[in-house]
Every structure is written in C-alpha cells, then in structure tokens.
Amino acid sequence: MSRIIAISNQKGGVGKTTTAINLSSGLARLGKKVLLVDFDSQGNATQGLNALESNNQTTVYNVILEGADIEKAIVRKTKPNVDVLPANISLAGADLQMDKLPYGKEMLLKSALDPIKDQYDYIFIDCPPSLGLLNTNALTAADSVLIPVQCEYYALEGVTQLLLTIRLVQQSSNPSLAIEGILMTMFDIRTRLSVEVSQEVRRTFGKLVYQNSIPRNVKLSEAPSRGVSIFEYDPRSNGAIAYQELSSEMLRINERR
Question: I need a labelling partner for 108 at 20 to 30 A (CA). Which of 85, 134, 163, 235 fits?
C-alpha cells in the first residue's frame, strides 16, 4: 500500500530538498519503489537528480493545470533508482492560477497522483518554503507530513505555523492527515546550540521526533551539483550513513503501524 509523505516547513534552508532526495534514495536502496514529486518552483529536487532533460519537458505544472499525462511526465532514474515528477520555474505562477479556479483548487495534486499512487511504496512531495495553495495541495494529497527542523535559534517558529496549516487542512480537505515525523537537520554535536535545540524539540514533540538526525556534512551540499544522491556521490560519508539509518528507521515505524 502506497504512502504519500509531504516534506514541508515554511522556513527555507532547513534541508527539505536534501531530505527529499536522500530519503527517497535510501528507501530505494532498501528495495522500495519510490516517486519523488518536486512541488517547488525552484526545481531543486529536479536539478539535484538531473531530471530536467529539456526546456519543453512536461512537468508537474503541466500535469496539474493543463491535464498532461502524469505517466509521460515522470522521469525514471537509475542512479539513484527513483522516479521523479519534475518541476521548473513555470510552477511559480501556479498559486495565482489555482486561486482563480471555481472549485477543487486544493485537490489538483491529489487528483493527479491517485491514478498512479499504487505503483509506488512511497511518494515524497518536496514542498515549497511557503504556506500557499501549492503547500495546501501537497498536504491534501499526502497521508502524512515529515517536518525537517534545522538546529538553530527560532527552529520551532516555522513548525508552529505549519502545524496551524495542518489543522486547517485536516478541517477542510484531508481529515486523516497525520504527522509522519520531525527530523533534526544540520546537527553538530560539537556545538551547544545544536544540542540545546535538539533537546527542546524532543521535549516539545516527544516520540514524533526521529531518533536519527542529519549532521552538517559538506558532502550533502556537494552531491546535488553532480545530479546524484549522497549514496552515489559519497556512500561512506556521515551524510550517507545518516540518511540510510533514517530510511531504516522510517521503515520500522511504518511496519508497526
């Protein structure tokens, strides 16, 4: 049975795309069939997996707003073994176009994914760093939300706003939406700040916080420039080990559900 997980936080720079790419790849390495939906107009997940093959390529924008065939839009990668529904800058105006629709504006992504979701074990949606209609579409389509939280001051600020949005979506378009988990990113055990922020988040959210956290690791920053995940770029790095352990932890949690 497929599980659709939105990776979201209204704050930018918290590791959403890094997590989307490498968690997708980590689960694929564990034998799972994975689709990564790039739902951010910056297209960083698309670029990070070298999934944009031409300027006139069919993207998620064409699928949700022009009725393009999602099967034809999906790019099937082998290194890593992850399918990608790509995005580009055309998605930047999607919020305004959605807002003009008379009805169903929050259901566009869900309607696009429903026909193909059973082909996958996991579908990850890399959300934009905002709380507009794109994010609402992602949360309406998702079974759950994974929230990356950077180990910095004001780390809980973006989470608080996102939790309010989640409640609104639960009340309107997706009553079964759950929190998949909270992931500490850019963790540096050598700094007091990282340790204190991690402790605060764990006190606040308890078992929702993954036991595994993602360290600061330069290899994680370098891998997207090569169009591959951390596992192809440097499988022995701390970043690769962390994302593989996170992938295993997620599988264990979902097998118990």
Answer: 163
